[in-house]
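Hi team, as promised in this morning's meeting, here are the two structures we talked about. I've kept the exact order from the run log so nobody has to guess. The first one is mostly here for context; it's the second one we should focus on when we meet again. Sequence first, then the predicted C-alpha cells.
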Amino acid sequence: MVFYDSPSDGRQLQIFELAESTVTESLDLAENDPGYGYSHEPGYQALARSSSDTWAELSYRYDDPDKGARRVVDHRFRTPGGTLYAIRSSGPEHLPDARVRAPLTTALASFCPAGASCG
C-alpha cells in the first residue's frame, strides 16, 4: 500500500493491490463490511457509482474526525495481466470534484505494475 499526500491542499492518493476475486466484490466489501466499511463512517453519503467488466468506482463523502468533511473517489480495476488494484483519491469536501479526481486520473493513465510490460 502506498500513500501520496499533498501538503498544500489536503489531497491524498492511495494505491494498493486487492485480495478479492472481482472489483465489484472488493468495492462492495470496502463500502459495506460491518467491521470497516465506508458506509459506517460518520456523515457517509454515496455520491456516484459506475462500473464496467474490468472496473468499478464509488464516489462518496464522509466526516473525518481529524481532517473534517472529505470527498473520496475509490476506483478498483483489473490490469491486462489480471491483477486487481485500487486507487483512491481524496480531498477536503470544499475542493472541486475535478481537483479531487485529478491525481486518480493521472495515476490511471500511467499505471504499470512492477514486472509488467506496459505501452
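And here is the second protein, the one for discussion:
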Amino acid sequence: MDVETISETIRRALSFGSIRPSRDELAATDEALRGHVAVLLADLRETAGRYLPDRHRVGRIEQHMADPLGKGILSADAEVHQRARDCQWLLAYHTARAGW
C-alpha cells in the first residue's frame, strides 16, 4: 500500500476548497480516491475481522462508494471532499494498525 500516494490524493482533494477545480479534475480525483478507499476498506476488513473500529462509519463509507459522482460541480465537489475525509479516516486506521 502506497501511503504517500494516498496522502497526496487526499491533500489534492481537500485543496479544492481554495481553488475552482474543473469537472474533469474532480472526476479524476474521485476515481483515484475510490481506488484508495477500496484498498483501505479491504485492508480494514482483513485486519479488523469482527472488530471494526466504527461499524456505522464503515457502512456509510461503503454506501457512499456506490453513489456516482454528482452531475453538478457543487455536488461533485462536496462528494469528492467527503470521499477524501473517508479515505483520510481509513488511512489513519491503517497507519495506527501498522504501528501496533
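Starting points for discussion:
The two ends are 17 Å apart (CA to CA).
The CA atoms of residues 16 and 36 lie 18 Å apart.
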